[in-house]
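Bench notes, afternoon.
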Amino acid sequence: MGNNEPCRITYFPKEIIDKFPPPDTFTFPFFYEPHPLTRVAAEAVQEYLETQTELDHNFGLQNDSSVGAIGKMFGVLVVQDKEGRIGYLSAFSGKLAGTNDHLNFVPPVFDMLVENSFFLNGIVVIDTVNNQLCDIESDEGYIRLKSEREQISAQSQLELLAFKLELKTNKEHRKNARIKYINRLSEFEYARLEADLVRQSLHDKHRLKVLTEKWKLQLAELGTELASFENRMEWLKAERKARSAELQDKLFKQYVFLNQSGQEKSLQELFSVTAFGKPPSGAGECATPKLLQAAFLNGYRPIAMAEFWWGASPKSEIRKHRQYYPACTGKCKPILTHMLEGMLIDENPFLEIPVPLRSLEIIYEDADLIIVNKPTKLRSVPGVDVMDSVYSRLQDIVPDVEPLIVHRLDMDTSGLMVVAKTSEVHRHLQRQFLRRTVKKRYTALLSKSIDGDEGSINLPLRADLYNRPRQLVCFEHGKECSTRWKVIDRRGTTTRVHFWPQTGRTHQLRMHAAHELGLNAPIIGDDLYGTPAERLFLHAAHLSFVHPTTKEMMIFELEEEF
């Protein structure tokens, strides 16, 4: 292969093009099977990454340290140049080895790291503000005053609490005295007692006021001394915020993206119409927008794309070494929607209805509920663009009843679902799910032979806001998520397991199977956290609950078809 250094294109030999003819339509970037040409290109980039010695980047691979390891997403774009020759461009997401400038990869849409750039100059100003804040926070006088305020605040709270307890005891004594003497003393004597008790009460209130004012005064004096520091810190923080916002806004305007018609749109413009309202951090730095930008600038026609992960997996999301992944939705979809405008693109697979339109299989039905066998590739409820679902099919089967979905299975998961026929039954079944008294068991076929025979997985999950519907492991903000598992059998390089989810989080079983802190073995056919196959090998095989009307235990078993 030849390499044209100025435009960073690598051409395929004729025999490769003859063997793998280019596709007629461009890759749908958010769900795809890599075209053979992109695989050839990706393997060449991977060979370079394995053998290169000039990149000072810790990928966390065999010869790297695990400390500070950062895996990286790489991308390839098959293109046709103005002379009709077919080659490819390559790129990485973000920075590589702390810089954007690497001969074998296309440049960024905007290089904020060039010497003396407005971005680096702006960072210097912000760093100066940060240094001033650090100077104040480390000032001995400020530290001493803060410590004194904390000590006096704690001491005042303790003393006031003890005094209030004393006053509460005094009040109780006065109450008891009134009860004790109301029938023992004459009216005149009791009036004198009452007057004395009132004086005691007023005296206690006065003492509390004096004590409260004493502490308030001491704290106020310290507050006055601290104000000179804290006011300066608040001003610096406001300055930092304003400088950061100004720098970010200016930066977003520098990221201007082309499409094949030569139309330009900035990051700010592209994200102003999204739910975010403004670009998220890192938008515009992903591999595919970089590649398309380079192609349009050099007059190349984009043919196919693919992205793969290289290096250690991050702790939060599922990323496997050498595995292909779609472009992210949150950061890339607004950009790519513009950049791919007017191009012939593969059909959106999310709009397909792969399950034949047929009557839904009903396992059980009575006056209160229905148990269905949901096939794989069928939604539980209608989507934004596709209406076909368990819900819509039940509307056709039982047109006189409004089906009420109690729980959902992922579109790619097959198996048992319970659907209520009345709102009362729906509420009753939902309470059972919320109280975790419903018993569910799933069968899955894992892509690896795993160690151990049974156990529990506890990994908290939260939504990946910039790449829905994917989930993240997050120990800080994630929701509790627990799964029991047990091996059924091992078949060569695969493992069949039973899963008992103790919680009901989105993609719980798929994440717990795939994540390196879980079983580290994606379910076969998991196109989000593993590799695609003819189906997701995950099946809801057992479902049991108390019937809302008869109060009988309802138990259903449905064997998987894999």
